[in-house]
Design brief:
Chain B: This is Response regulator. The complex is a heterodimer of chains A (about 575) and B (about 140). Chain A has about 575 residues and is of the alpha+beta class. Chain A contains 16 helices and 17 strands. In chain A, the strands form 4 sheets. A 5-stranded antiparallel β-sheet of chain A has the order 2-1-5-4-3, with helices on both faces. Chain A has a 5-stranded antiparallel β-sheet with strand order 6-7-10-9-8. Classes of the chains: A alpha+beta (about 575), B alpha/beta (about 140).
């Protein structure tokens, strides 16, 4: 359970790492490049619009100026008397039409009272009274006046240019009407994208050109726009000023490029939906987002699959390692069993030799006859001895069998003291011949530990064997001590052997590290012990002084009484049984 | 004249029974239960001809005892007695002057045969020594 959880979390953390590492630069690049590109593109678009408007406001101004100059030339060349002559005026108008097409619709001379005295053009406007007309009043003040576009008397959109002429103490006004269509064309052609269009408004926000779509909904907005901008007029009334406003008619954000013309009487406005102006930018941004999204998706899927595969591989490798570990432990165990068997063989040979001798003795006595002396009692004694020795053999083989069983890694509660006694009993014979005295000082009350008894048995046997080997020529003492140390149960094996040189101390737990001659030690014992103790959440420490002795101390977490119960109870039961 | 034997083994039951059986066959048998004890018995009884010595004993083991015997009593012959696991050390013993080795548990007749051979060898040695001494005395006389 916890294992699969471990591999799942491993896979998860791998997945998140991969995703983070792969997506972070992607997002960073998209953000940085997107921002830079957006800024550059916006700059380009606004520069382009500004250029466009600047060019056109100039051309409109030129157009108007040119027409004004035309009239001014006429007024200077011809005196009022000639202009008053309808035929002369007619000829002049014809000449203008020839030179400028239909730009000049008509031509008229108005006296100081506002009465048109002479007229040449398609309408019958001879004698019309203009005294109330806006242009007439303005022209009196300014000498030259270009009117706003309006239907005027004829009911067709047009605008008027009027020029005041002073002659013989009287004011005369030469006026001409300009064709709206020709003028309209100047701005009508400025069209960009789907929504970009240009028009001219006066200060009352009345259209001076006809926008090519219905903009009645936007008039109120434009009025407010013009007035509002009047207050901080610099922005709107500066040349090619750019503002971004939300158009209430459509609810969309729009770019307005405004430029004053006709000395600030009119305002040329170019407007375009922001979306439309930045269409290419938006397309690029959307593309980038799609790429980012698809990339993220692909990375996530890949990360998921990869991390799952990796976790599975790790799991497989771990389980292979586990199997390997078991095999190594088994091998190490075989080695220690072999070592044990050598001792056991001799141990078993002794009782067998006694039995053989006793049997031979019985045979000797039988040849002599049972009745002689107390031969019968002697035979009884010999038979008893055979039985005793047989029982001894049985004990030895049982001890050996208890160890040679397959290692059972099952973890259970048990008492270390029992195990120590078992091991001491098992090693006693070997210790005896090696002149080693094993002493145990086992704590009376000691908590149980949670471990695999058969693995611990191997650990202890290995340590005891090592200790006996360390004291090989000459023998010594091996003290085995168990005690409760805080939350741990500590067991130490202190020998008075040759000790371990400091240089080797850090390597003794390495696999295959051995100081024994080739063929005598596998170098696996301590590394197996280390693995076993580690797996049981314990620690193993070693202290050693050369020629004084070595102490191995194992600490295993003690089991709380509530869970496992104290050891003493079980021991006492055994004692009384 | 039958040989005088010393049995050295830490297994008391083995030593006692073996001693009885050998005694029944007309041999004079001394017993000891450790290497030290064996050396003591050997020192206090000059008549011992052959020592049957267990290799594996606590305290002073067979090989060590053998070495001491060979120093103190060079003429005494030693037969090593061994379990299978210690055949190597028995052979070591042979190299350092033991007469032969036998596996435990051993056949009594075989052991008796070996003891006889060992006894004969010792007798031969002793005879040679006696002869040599006699020659020495004769030469000294200078006749």
């Amino acid at each position: 359970m916890s294992d699969s959880h471990y591999y799942q979390s491993l896979a998860k953390s791998m997945m998140f790492t991969i995703i983070l590492v792969s997506i972070a630069p992607l997002v960073l690049i998209v953000l940085i490049a997107g921002h830079q590109y957006g800024a550059a593109y916006e700059e380009k678009v606004t520069a382009h619009l500004r250029e466009l408007v600047l060019k056109h406001d100039q051309s409109v101004d030129y157009y108007l100026e040119e027409k004004v100059e035309e009239i001014r030339v006429l007024a200077e060349v011809f005196n009022v008397n000639r202009l008053r002559d309808p035929r002369e005026l007619e000829a002049l108008h014809d000449a203008l039409v020839r030179g400028h097409g239909n730009d000049f619709v008509d031509l008229g001379l108005v006296n100081s009272e506002g009465i048109q005295e002479a007229y040449a053009g398609p309408y019958r406007l001879q004698g019309v009274d203009y005294s109330e007309a806006e242009w007439f009043r303005m022209a009196r003040e300014r000498t030259v006046y270009v009117s706003d576009v309006g239907p005027g008397l004829r009911g067709v959109p047009h605008f008027t240019i009027a020029l005041r002429i002073k002659e013989a103490g009287r004011d005369w006004f030469l006026r001409t009407t300009l064709d709206f269509i020709a003028f309209n064309k100047l701005v009508e052609d400025i069209r960009i994208g789907q929504t970009g269009l240009a028009y001219i408004i006066n200060k009352k926000a009345e259209f001076q050109t006809t926008p090519n779509r219905d903009m009645t909904g936007e008039v109120s907005f434009l009025q407010r726009f013009v007035k509002g901008m009047d207050s901080n007029g610099e922005r709107v009334w500066g040349r090619a000023a750019i503002t971004t406003e939300t158009n209430p008619a459509t609810g969309k954000e729009m770019i307005f490029v405004t430029s004053p013309i006709k000395n600030g009487d009119w305002l040329m406005v170019f407007q375009q939906d922001t979306d439309d102006a930045y269409a290419a930018l938006n397309r690029t941004r959307n593309l980038a987002l799609v790429v980012l999204l698809l990339g993220t998706l692909a990375i996530t899927i890949m990360a998921y699959l990869m991390s799952r595969r990796m976790a599975r591989k790790v799991e497989k490798a771990d389980s292979a390692k586990e199997i390997m570990n078991e095999q190594v432990i088994e091998a190490g165990k075989l080695a220690s069993v072999g070592e044990l068997a050598a001792g056991i063989a001799h141990e078993i040979n002794n009782p067998v030799a006694i039995m053989v001798e006793e049997a031979g003795w019985i045979q000797d006595l039988l040849e002599e006859g049972l009745k002689v002396d107390d031969n019968e009692r002697e035979v009884q004694r010999a038979l008893n001895q055979i039985r005793t020795q047989g029982t001894r053999c049985k004990g030895i083989t049982h001890k050996l069998l208890s160890f040679a069983r397959k290692t059972d890694p099952t973890v259970k509660f048990f008492c270390l003291n029992e195990l120590v006694r078992e091991i001491v009993e098992l090693s006693e014979q070997r210790a005896k011949y090696a002149n080693v005295i094993i002493e145990t000082s086992l704590a009376d009350t000691i908590a149980q530990v949670q471990a695999s008894p058969s693995e611990m048995q191997q650990v202890f046997l290995n340590l005891v064997n090592n200790a006996i080997d360390a004291m090989d020529p000459g023998g010594g003492n091996l003290d085995i001590m168990t005690r409760l140390d805080g939350d741990d149960v500590a067991i130490s094996f202190a020998d008075t052997g040759c000790g371990i040189p400091e240089a080797n101390l850090s390597r003794i737990f390495d696999p295959f590290f051995t100081t024994k001659p080739v063929g005598q030690g596998t170098g696996l014992g301590l590394s197996i012990i280390y693995g076993i103790i580690n797996r049981m959440d314990g620690t193993i420490a070693v202290q050693s002084t050369v020629d004084v002795g070595t102490t191995f101390t194992i600490r295993l977490p003690a089991v709380k009484e509530a869970e496992g119960g104290a050891c003493e109870i079980r021991l006492n039961k055994e004692d009384t049984a | 004249m039958p040989a005088t034997i010393l049995l050295v083994d830490d297994e008391q039951g083995f030593v006692d029974t073996m001693a009885k059986r050998l005694g029944k066959r007309g041999l004079k048998v001394f017993t000891a239960y450790s290497g030290h004890e064996g050396l003591d018995v050997l020192s206090s009884n000059g008549s011992i001809d052959v020592v049957i010595l267990d290799v594996k004993m606590p305290g002073m083991d067979g090989n060590e005892t053998l070495a001491r015997i060979k120093i103190d009593h060079p003429l005494v012959e030693v037969i090593m007695l061994t379990g299978h696991a210690t055949v190597e050390s028995a052979i070591e013993g042979m190299k350092s002057g033991a007469f032969d080795y036998m596996m435990k548990p051993c056949d009594l007749e075989e052991l008796l045969g070996k003891v006889g051979e060992a006894y004969d060898k010792k007798e031969t040695h002793e005879t040679k020594i006696l002869e040599a001494r006699a020659r020495h005395i004769v030469l000294r006389r200078g006749d």
